[in-house]
Amino acid sequence: MTFREYLKNNKVYLDGGMGTLLQERGLKPGERPELWNITHKDIIVEIHRAYYDAGSNVVSANTFGANVLHFDEVELKTIIDAAVANVREAANASTSQGPKFVALDIGPTGKLLKPLGDLDFEDAVEVFAKTVRLGVQAGVDLIIIETMNDSYETKAALLAAKENSDLPVIVSNAYGQDGKLMTGATPTAMVALAEGMGADAVGANCSLGSAQLVDVAQELLSVASIPVVIKPNAGLPHTEGNKTVFDVGPDEFAQTMAEIISMGVRVAGGCCGTTPAHIAKMVSETKEIAPKALEDKGITMVSSYTHAVVFKDEPILIGERINPTGKKRFKQALVENDMDYILTEGINQQEKGVHILDVNVGLPEIDEVDMLTRAVCELQAVTDLPLQIDTADTVAMESALRRYNGKAMINSVNGKVEVMDAIFPLVKKYGGLVVALTLDESGIPSTAEGRIQIAKNILAKAQEFGISPKDIIFDTLAMTVSADNKAAVATLDSLAYIKNQLGCHTSLGVSNISFGLPNRDAVNGVFFGMALERGLSAAIMNPYSSEMLKTYYAFKMLRGMDENCAQYISKADSFGTVAPKTAVTGSVAASQEAMDLRQAIIKGLKDMAYQMTKEKIATVEPLEIVNQEIIPALNYVGQGFEQKTMYLPQLLMSAEAAKSAFQVIKEAMPKGGNNKGTCVLATVKGDIHDIGKNIVKLLMENYGFMVVDLGKDVKPAEIVDKVVELHAPMVGLSALMTTTVPAMEETIVLVREKAPWCKVIVGGAVLTQEYADKIGADKYASDAMEAVRYAEQICVGE
Amino acid sequence: MITVVTKTYNNIEPDNREILRYAGCMEPDNNVNTLMQSSLVEAAAVLSGKACYVVLSQEELEEIPELNQVIKGSQDLQYLLRGCSKIVVMAATIGVGIDRLMAKYGKIAPSKALMFHAIGAETIEKLCDMVCQEISQELGAELTYRFSPGYGDLPLETQRTVFDILNPPKHIGLTLQESTLMAPSKSVTAIMGVKN
Q: Is the CB of A650 less than 8 angstroms away from the CB of B24?
């Protein structure tokens, strides 16, 4: 019987702790336990056998840290071969009844993935892939990915397992006392991710004792349609004399496990501190408990690296603003590679209360694969909302889905066979909730019946790919009512049918309904309300539209989804008609005082500076505002900082206020502004500190320089290539650590060689004038103002 | 057998004066204070203090040659540990949350990013103080001050030895990068002596 077959109808017992038992037998701190597969084979086999004898059906090979980060490839093969052979030997020697399986055990790399750490996602996939391939060669029956405390690394390991084997995969995470992974994911979010990618079981191990894991188990069981695995520690370790003792003994452990298994957990074992005695006791206490039959929970959800968004009764808002269609400024940002603009759109929409962000960066003149992938990764560094990846380019779609940390929404598939053949395999492989448009080769049917038929065709085709209806959300296509006065009716009727008869969720791009009409907001708001009342599950919408927000919160309140009307009341004041502002609040406490733009900038009042510029620009020339108000304010603050009457936070707040004023200016004259000179900025290779660099960027931009920010941890060649490409007169390099100063020096050498015209400004915590001279920089700037002043000198000199 | 002790802390109270010092602002006006207060609220929601440590007797230290060598090779450490019968090796972190806030606001509001940087720097210091105080109480003995890889003549590379011994990725989710920088960034490792 294969493991998958056995798992279908039976409880599965895993083994217990290994590392803690090896420490008892003399494993030293810092010594790699995997080496013991060869050096202490007898001990390893003996422990494995004790677990089989205790009743374990699955014993994990001693391969937790067996990967190419810890061993070279030759050594790795020897270790994994030996580790798997040891378990086989134990299985053959054990006298216990019942099927015995051998698992390849995969633990975390011990590294954090980018952007939090320095391990690239694809590199992580490759690390795990090498271990998986060796495990498959060695003949394991299944793969256990365990103790993962980060959703992204979990995804990398699961992807590697799926791409390099057909073996069953168990995914188990280490939750903290707050019931979340170290990087923030909830159990529900992990179920969304693991189940979406086709894991055979999902669950939790380590970190917590069995009693604390009950809550986690409960949550997993309530959402997972696949078997749930639980492998707790034997409580917490403490020292007694010279021994480490875990505080939960076999009896107490077995008791809690009996409770957990009765709840419906199907795969059970132990982690740190548990012993064959714990497992034996658990098996004897629980073998009479009948395995709970699995049921498809039918839960439609997407997830980010922190949380899941579940589609149930409450309608979901999907922000539509990250999309260049009809937006001049957004197109310009894409062409100029202005990622900050896109990120700010994301953050602003989150503040407006949307649950998911649609991400569309398609423009004919840019490389969409690269842009979409980067946009997804960078958005995930600044917002924890799940993303809806929106592209017609399937290569871009796959690239973005692969890198996405969580279970994404996929926009979109439709009834065309060619499109389904391209998109459904991606949904199957990476997981996702796919938006299905009810159109096909013959276009969009004008009737509800026609659209319903397409929906049925899509469901049938999805089934062929093994995609469940819960992972399809139908968009019955809002078409402008100005072209056909029955358009809204067809959309709503098909929507209601799909919701009620086909039992699937629905989504609409609401605002299309009013295309070509005056006062579109009024129409959109009412149509949105009608759709909600017919059962709409989600809307792709403009969160800055007060009509949409009014409708949404009023609907929820009237439909009994808003206890004590609390949400409506808290939002009611914000239904103004004000356009989106720059992100984040400055203090508006002083807003009562009479104040001009100059003072607003000096005081660092971002929102006020924005509003005042907006009002002024109706009557005053943009350049006059810059020269009469913004520049004098910046000079005042800059001099204050240099004379130490103002401090860094004040300098920054003023700079941000000036930036928001500039934003208005830029909208008024997008091509305008005289670029004083171009500066390439980067934090050097190996260094990930970018606060200082970001401060320099902000100030230089305000002073009229065009800044090309390459980010952090940037290779010398990449920096110099950009300098050469732009023939930039200056480059700013930042380094915070003594260990990364050599990378700075290396960059300077390369600049001198390839771009002799370019002046090099260096800065960062460890640098001094002496250091800067030694590595051959043109200028050491001890703070951002000094960098600005030097840049002004250079560019006047030119 | 050497036990790595792991602890979590949810009630770290940073000192506002220190935060302002880290932010380079000793005389805050109302705007700066408002910025700090709102940042403190946002940070509090994501701070997650964790620490792990080992207490090693002289004999136990002998069993870990890499560490023993490192200590013998550093005159500064020798001086610090003179007359100490035991040493403590610790690692502590306040988690990834503050890094995410710094990344987010670095893009849209560097003044806030700076504030989170300052809050993080102060909070990890306070966390270390709490950990040391607890260890000191448990052992009923005073500790020396904390000495970290990269201080004095103790090479930054010592970070790798500390990580081998404590396995912070497993215990507290703290990782070491190729550059020997730690991630999450607001983290500390240190060696201390237990005074007789």
A: no
